[in-house]
Write a structure and sequence with these properties.
heterodimer; A: alpha+beta; Alpha-Beta Plaits; Calcium-transporting ATPase, cytoplasmic transduction domain A; seven-stranded mixed beta sheet; six-stranded antiparallel beta sheet; 26 strands; elongated; B: mainly alpha; membrane (chain A); hydrolase (chain A); transport (chain A)
Chain lengths: 702, 55
């Protein structure tokens, strides 16, 4: 630990690469001794590290310190994520659990025959425990019910709130007038079971949110700006302004839109347009934030920063597109729309029925309350979240992260799929196709050259050669020549790995390896289709989901993929066009599943009825998608749809169980036969059956 | 009845202390990093500085 002057600043980094206990130790003990860092604390669940450091330390310094330990880190900017509601719900559940256990303890003695003063005392004690509990643990329901009622709508929380309040008030009256039955145990137990459902729902949302937050990468946290006096200063992205000049090193992302003032390089536009081939830029070329500078340093005069960049435009488009989805009504609320009026009518009818039959208002009210508490959707409140959290757990084990329960409901409904090409159907990274043209003796030299560069083609060569077990040869004087590639000396002769000469170049991505006295060897690359894509498409077909391609890439590069997979394709699509394509499909009644990865797919991902993105996707893609799947294969898409559909089947079964239980219980309640004991048994019995049924989802479908 | 006068408050108090302990644990962030907590047991403690080598 290093002593620092002044108040330490806290910066959060997402470190997706940490996998084990060793990483925790390495990060925490490795960062602590760095000058200026007071302490570092890892949150493994969220894959984040929080660093307390001297205010003078800049983001790149901290990032470099983490990189030195062997981890890639991305700063998480903005304020810490909003505190989740899980914690409040958990507290409410704990209180309700405590209360229901203690009230039950007292109730059991009443049921087993306590009478007279003892019964009154026990009822009074129950009231003392139950009333504060209802006031505290009931708040989430009261709030939501009030919000719905004040908008003139009704939801599941309205019958719950009315039921709990009415039952508590009546039981209090009974207690004070030495009545025989008090339903305090029913009221708090109901709250407890329902809160468990809420906690499950909220935990599921949090888990996915943390997972995505850990992968959430800033486009570029900032840039090195060139001041008029020639000195440089690192500025955060939100403090950049038009007119400034920034220096973008090779391998860095641009933090703002601008015009190239000096330098020539090529840019990777995949994030913005989905195009896989790098695009050369020179002086005077317009460049956009979010693109990756590949070859050589560029000096860029900023023309638009922050909210004015092309990237921010896409973000706005996405926000608009997402609004349709927020209008989706979840199945529990759809059920409540039918259920709540029915329950209230029934309770009201039973009250008037017994009044007409001549049973005083007190007795009639008691029966009405019994009807409310017995019909209170205890099993209904658990039916959906229990099934969904088990399904989300199952999917997580097969490598799919679901954002929330509503995503599962929407995924179950899709009947049409649109795929992006680059990075979705394909791996999104070039792979050497004709490595065999390289003579085995030359491979070590090529590997040594490729290791010196961060260019995507070099990286691809390096991975492929290392997989073949090649070890690098001692190549001397390795240097990177901007705009060309790598040069060095091997066995005394000059060697190079770089851009092919004009006469050898063809339409494909390629590099040339040359060695003095030898014929130059041209190596081609292509963006390979993900493994198992054909099988996944066939499985989706069997599930009744027809797919097609919607790509931002040119027709020539889409055609081979479309032919190989036998899919219809639309090409040259801007983000707006993809949005329009989804809109027109939706207008014909199709429920579209959008699968994409790039920033350019963001609006389409937000607009689709449901959407999925690979874990290699841009953060925008991951944020917009309902589900993120890990690994190279597309197979999780079909698995997810199958699990989602099975979940909805289980949810419907659970509804059926809850309703058939009501069929038996309601007549009993109407006849005034439901004592607190019967209510308690019925409530816990139906909840256990529903949860047990949901647990059947733990099996992963093949 | 005398036994009840003692046992009921005692039972409530025990339950309540459990509840308070849970609230405290929640508030002090013990549930913030469930996976990490499981792994930290495997992390070797950094060698403590020898403050008093003679014991």
């Amino acid at each position: 630990m290093t002593a620092i002057a002044g108040d330490p600043t806290r910066t959060l980094f997402a470190v997706p690469g940490m996998r084990c206990a060793g990483c925790i130790a390495k990060l925490e003990s490795g960062l602590a001794p760095v000058p200026g860092i007071a302490s570092a604390r890892v949150n493994f669940t969220a894959r984040q590290v929080a660093i307390d450091h001297a205010p003078g330390l800049q983001l790149p310094d901290l990032q470099a310190a983490i990189a030195k330990l062997g981890f890639e880190a991305q700063p998480i900017q903005g304020n810490a994520p909003a505190p989740s509601e899980s914690r409040d719900l958990l507290k409410a559940t704990a209180v309700a659990g405590f209360a229901s256990m203690n009230v039950m303890l007292l109730s059991v003695s009443v049921w087993s025959g306590a009478a007279g003063a003892t019964r009154d005392l026990f009822h009074l004690l129950s009231a003392l425990i139950a009333i504060p509990t209802v006031a505290y643990s009931g708040r989430p329901f009261f709030k939501s019910a009030w919000a719905a009622l004040s908008h003139g709508r009704t939801n599941m929380d309205v019958p719950i709130s009315i039921g709990v309040l009415l039952v508590t008030a009546l039981s209090l009256f009974e207690t004070l007038t030495s009545g025989a039955h008090a339903y305090f145990d029913g009221a708090v137990m109901l709250l407890f079971f329902l809160l468990v459902g809420r906690v499950l729902d909220s935990v599921m949302r949090d888990r996915a949110r943390d997972g995505v937050a850990a992968l959430l990468k800033q486009t570029a946290p900032g840039a090195l700006t060139l001041k008029p006096d020639g000195t440089t200063e690192w500025r955060a992205a939100d403090t950049l302004a038009p007119g400034m000049r920034m220096i973008v090193a090779a391998g860095e992302r641009l933090a703002a839109d601008g015009v190239v003032e000096a330098g020539a390089s090529s840019l990777d536009l995949a994030l913005l347009t989905g195009e896989s081939a790098p695009q050369p830029v020179g002086e005077g070329a317009k460049v956009h934030a979010g693109t990756l500078n590949l070859d050589a340093p560029l000096t860029v005069r900023i023309t638009a920063a922050g909210p004015d960049t092309a990237i921010a435009d896409i973000a706005r488009l996405m926000e608009q597109a997402g609004q349709a989805r927020s209008r989706y009504v979840r199945i529990a609320d759809r059920a409540a729309r039918l259920y709540a009026p029915a329950v209230h009518t029934l309770a009201l009818l039973s009250f008037f029925g017994w009044m007409l039959a001549g049973a005083g208002w007190h007795h009639s009210l008691l029966i009405a309350a019994a009807v409310l508490i017995i019909t209170c959707p205890c099993a209904l409140g658990l039916a959906v979240p229990a099934a969904q959290i088990v399904a989300a757990g199952t999917l997580m084990r097969s490598g799919v992260l679901i954002k929330d329960g509503s995503a599962l409901e929407r995924l179950a409904e899709v009947d049409r799929a649109l795929f992006d090409k680059t990075g979705t159907l394909t791996l999104g990274r070039p792979q050497p196709v004709d490595l065999d043209r390289l003579r085995p003796v030359m491979k070590p030299a090529v590997l040594a050259l490729a290791q010196g560069s961060r260019h995507p083609l070099s990286a691809a060569l390096r991975t492929a050669l290392e997989q073949q077990g090649v070890t690098p040869a001692p190549v001397e004087q390795i240097r990177e020549e901007p705009g060309f590639g790598m040069r060095g000396r091997y066995l005394g002769a000059p060697v190079s790995l770089g851009r092919p000469g004009a006469d050898e170049a063809d339409s494909q991505m390629a590099v040339a390896f040359t060695m003095d006295g030898l014929e130059p060897c041209l190596l081609h690359f292509e963006d390979a289709i993900r493994p198992g894509t054909g099988a996944t498409l066939a499985r989706l077909d069997r599930l009744g989901i027809r797919g097609s391609i919607a790509s931002g890439d040119r027709a020539e590069s889409v055609a081979p993929v479309a032919q190989a997979l036998n899919l219809a394709a639309q090409t040259d699509m801007r983000p707006e066009d993809k949005l329009a394509a989804i809109g027109s499909l939706a207008a014909t009644g199709a429920k579209v599943l959008m699968v994409g990865d790039g920033l350019n797919d963001g609006p389409a991902l937000a607009a689709g009825h449901a959407s999925m993105a690979p874990a290699s996707a841009s953060d925008v893609g991951q944020t917009a998608a309902d589900a993120v799947f890990m690994g190279d294969s597309l197979a999780p898409i079909a698995t997810t749809i199958m699990v989602a559909r099975r979940t909805m089947r289980i949810v419907r079964q659970n509804f059926a169980i809850a309703i058939s239980y009501n069929m038996v219980a309601i007549p009993l309640a109407l006849l005034g036969l439901v004592t607190p004991l019967v209510a308690a048994l019925a409530m816990s019995g139906s909840s256990i059956i529903v949860v047990g049924n949901a647990l059947r989802l733990r099996r992963v479908p093949q | 009845m005398n036994g009840l006068a003692l046992l009921i408050p005692l039972a409530l108090l025990l339950g309540l202390s459990g509840l308070v302990a849970f609230f405290w644990a929640l508030g002090s962030g013990q549930f913030d990093d469930m996976e990490g907590a499981a792994l930290r047991i495997l992390v070797d403690d950094a060698p403590a500085p020898p403050e008093n080598p003679l014991g």
